[in-house]
Specification:
- The chain is an alpha+beta fold and about 375 residues long.
- It folds into two domains: about 210 residues, no CATH class; about 80 residues, no CATH class.
- It is built from eleven helices and six strands.
- The chain has a six-stranded antiparallel β-sheet with strand order 1-2-3-4-5-6, with no helix packed on it.
- Helix 4 crosses helix 8.
- The two termini are about 30 Å apart.
- About 5% of the residues have low confidence.
């Protein structure tokens, strides 16, 4: 029941903003809206399953303690650990279900929903260079744009490939602009305050430009924008994306032709480039796996807290549950904000709430079992 309630609440944020206006305005049929809602449900379960398990645990064991049933159980010679073992096993089973939803079902449904929404909006112009994706559909180039607001770009990276395998030139710019020449199927990319690093004669040469322009042909938008965003990829797609990026970023310079100091400098620069490019992919790999253990951590800490609070009021359990959820997800949001800063190890930050909740929950459960 709690999972259903949280699913409904979390669905409202998306439905009220995007889905309901389609139905009210009469632009789409009810069947299309129902399909969009059905595609959002598995994505929402990523968050609803841990939240529902935590709230249910707090409410059940809070009422259990308030009605003095725990005292009666202990008087019968049954320990608390024996009593809660089925609940802990249920939380582990939900961890397996969460892993399936987090790593496969949720991302696939989210991509399907996004595709449906974008097709309804007919935003093909912004789809030529979609944001948050590594675009490798243009021969000789890899593109990445952090944001694309109707052609105004932010956090752009361009990788010029040599022989379609290794990166020869890396271009970074905080902002840029994209101009589409639809009749000629040309795309003009303008980057401002660009920083380049290119390979020439076995040396890495840094360059800077106030404006850097590039023109190339493009395929129709429905062919270019077919790849999901990094945060919408399944676990298997993320692993493949990481392997492909690392293959493309193999060191292209023969270090034996360089002095030892040049070789060390070049290795340092190139490894930094590799970490920067693969950091978002590594982060989302760890986030999907770490998030799958949230049900167990929430259950482990929810049982002793529910017993200690021992209040009959439902709102007390809900309030504690929301507080714990806010603490847990604050680590996820912190790691996500640093996903492009590998020096802060954001892929390890997402594991911290699991370790903290499980450690604190184990200590509190041990103390509750001893009656402390």
């Amino acid at each position: 029941m709690t999972v259903a309630v949280f699913t409904f609440v979390l669905m409202l944020g998306n439905a009220l903003k995007e889905i309901l206006p389609w139905l009210v305005s009469g632009q789409v049929r009810f069947s299309t809206v129902a399909k969009a809602v059905a595609l959002l449900v598995p994505f929402v379960w990523v968050f609803a399953l841990p939240m529902g398990m935590l709230t249910a645990t707090l409410l059940i064991f809070g009422r259990f303690s308030a009605d003095q049933e725990l005292t009666a159980v202990r008087a019968s010679g049954i320990s608390l650990l024996s009593l809660v073992s089925p609940v802990l096993l249920l939380s582990l089973a939900l961890c397996c279900l969460s892993a399936l939803v987090n790593t496969y079902v949720g991302p696939r449904c989210r991509v399907a929903y996004t595709t449906l929404r974008d097709n309804l909006r007919l935003e093909f112009s912004s789809g030529v260079l979609p944001e948050g994706r590594f675009i490798k559909d243009f021969p000789g180039y890899i593109f990445y744009a952090g944001k694309n607001r109707q052609g105004n770009l932010q956090d752009i990276m361009v990788f010029v490939l040599k022989n379609e395998t290794n990166v020869e030139t890396t271009v970074r710019a905080p902002r840029g602009r994209i101009v589409v020449d639809t009749p000629n199927q040309l795309l003009n990319l303008y980057l401002y305050d660009a920083r380049l690093m290119t390979v020439a004669d076995g040396r890495a040469i840094p360059l800077a430009f106030e404006e850097w322009a590039l023109q190339f042909g493009f395929a129709p938008p429905q062919q270019v924008a077919g790849k999901p965003r990094v945060d919408d990829m399944t676990f298997q797609q993320l692993l493949e994306e990481r392997r492909e990026l690392e293959r493309l970023l193999n060191l292209p310079v023969p270090l034996k032709n360089l002095t030892p100091e040049q070789a060390r400098t070049w290795k340092t620069v190139w490894e930094q480039q590799r970490r920067d490019l693969t950091a978002p992919v590594v982060f989302h790999i760890h986030r999907q796996v770490a998030f799958s253990f949230a049900c167990f951590g929430f259950t482990l800490i929810g049982i002793p807290l529910g017993i200690r609070v021992h209040r009959r009021e439902t709102n007390v359990g809900v309030a504690i549950g929301l507080l714990l959820v806010a603490i847990y997800y604050s680590f996820i949001l912190l790691g996500q904000s640093l996903e492009r800063r590998p020096e802060f190890a954001p892929h390890l930050i997402v594991w911290l709430p699991n370790f903290i909740f499980q450690a604190v929950g184990a200590v509190l459960l041990y103390r509750a079992n001893r009656g402390v």
